[in-house]
Design goal:
The chain is built from 13 helices and no strands. The chain is mostly helical and 352 residues long. It folds into two domains: 187 residues, no CATH class; 155 residues, no CATH class. The longest helix has 34 residues.
Length: 352
Amino acid sequence: MHNTATMPARARVDQATADRRIALWLLAVSAMVFAMVVVGGITRLTESGLSIVTWKPLSGVVPPLTDADWQAEFEAYKQYPEYQKVNRGMTLDEFKKIFWWEYAHRLLGRSIGLAFAIPLAVFWIRGYVRRELRVRLVGLFLLGGLQGLMGWYMVKSGLVDRPDVSHYRLTAHLSLAIIIYSALMWVALGLLRPETGTPSLKARRPDLWRLFLVLVGLTALQIGLGGFVAGLNAGMVYNTWPLMGGGFIPGDLLFMDPWWVNFLEHTTTVQFSHRMIAYAVVVTAAVLWWRLRVTGVADAANLVLAAVLIQLVLGILTLVYVVPIPLAALHQAGAMVLVTAILYLGHRMVRS
């Protein structure tokens, strides 16, 4: 008779069960990254991101606890451009409000790191992690560390002479978060829905897969433009829809020289581009939905089209009401929901 207490963990748990547990863990971490993106958006909207002027990965976990601690934190903040040029005269209580948003953002980031690293070590030691999965999980862990560095690199850009972070670094920070979220979700979905060995919809209908990739590319571009809009405060100009300044094409489009700089730094051109790509995403999603409606992934296509239309409405409302924090936060969350729906559809196409 075998003594189960001495049997290897791999023998006690079959691989399907191990894969399911790993998938659920990755989905939980994905949910934390989703929340991180939304909290990061609120941190930006409340202009809280430059309230903590140092990066202390370990000791920074502990917030100010005494009046002296708070005063020291406030005095450090006063040495930098945001206080000197924007918030001069701010009280300590007002400082605490912006501090807590940035602190929550950083604490959530650290929590994600622990929520990934500790279970990964446990699963690895117990023999749950298949060899072909190890590189992916280690890669995800390294991406998470890179995201922490990218966050501080972004913050540093607002601590020099201009009291605002670089919109390039902001967009890079957001884009890396989306990449991490997408990778987590894709690996989890793969574990929950393994290959069947039969030809997938992707293989049977490469034309539909190419159209899906167009949607992925447009959505990625749109999210990047959203980072530019946020970083340049481009949502604060031309707060009408569908026209901009009385016309569909604003008069000051391509105002800067050379012309290509407008797409990177001119608020009007960046907002106009964000609008145009939004329309392209809607049209592409609608065409893809129409062509997938008679396939086995029609339900997933329905989710994508619904997410796209809701996101369009949220974007319009955010613009015309001049970027109120609740609507803007919902718009950012809507982008994450859309990414989730697209990932689900893509995986269904690959594994159907």
